Amino acid sequence: MADATKRFAAGEIIFRIGDAADVAYFIVKGKVDVFGPDKKRLGTISENGIVGEMALIDPAPRMATAVASVECECRVITAKTFKQIIDDAPPMANYLLRSLIRTQRHRVGLAREEVEGEAEAASAEVLGRQRSRAESGRIADRRTYPKGTIIFKDGSPGDAVYVVESGTVSIVKANAAGEETVLRRLGPGEVFGERAVIEKTDRAAAAIAETMATCEVTPRDTFVQVLAKCPPILNGLIRIYIGMY
Length: 245
Prior knowledge:
Elements: E1 4-8, E2 13-15, E3 23-29, E4 32-35, E5 41-45, E6 50-51, H1 53-57, E7 65-68, E8 72-78, H2 79-88, H3 91-107, H4 116-137, E9 141-145, E10 150-152, E11 160-166, E12 169-174, E13 180-186, E14 191-192, H5 194-199, E15 206-209, E16 213-219, H6 220-228, H7 232-242
Antiparallel strand pairs: 1-8, 2-7, 3-6, 3-8, 4-5, 4-7, 9-16, 10-15, 11-14, 11-16, 12-13, 12-15
């Protein structure tokens, strides 16, 4: 899987924000600190962790700077090798991970337009793969919701994961006075409802069809089975990224 081994001295920059990305690093020994655009430390990756994978999955410049906090030994994973790992994952898991990464880029201030073309192409490809498998194996159902339909309510059980195929879906939270705030607006190629399913909790907000919307709907048990088939690295990344928002 790894093409080479590389060593970094303590304090050495592994990559910077904005760098072109063509490799990820599997940490064999040592620790790596990760910093955001404001130079605030986002976290520390230890042995058996991987750094730099986000830019490999979702094409765009690096969204963080990685610095060896101590002397490190890393295995270098090329984009081609990492892409094969992603492509071998079940389509729904593949697509969810791509969607989560795009969300994280947006949260840290990188314009989504930078990767919108690639994202739409990936979305179409994965939705097609998912639909083909769904038609033969009943993994997902396609449902259409008229404008204003409540897809699920705040506090309802997390019983399914949704992928927007067309239209717009709003994630809405009401305060004690009943005043509603739109937390997110989701369009084609975006996933919602996954956090409650993975964390086995009730919905933390409502989902409403802002326009007529068509979604691919995957039941909880099926989605959990899909995740179980993922390589451990991808499964872990999905859970980490869900925990970030």
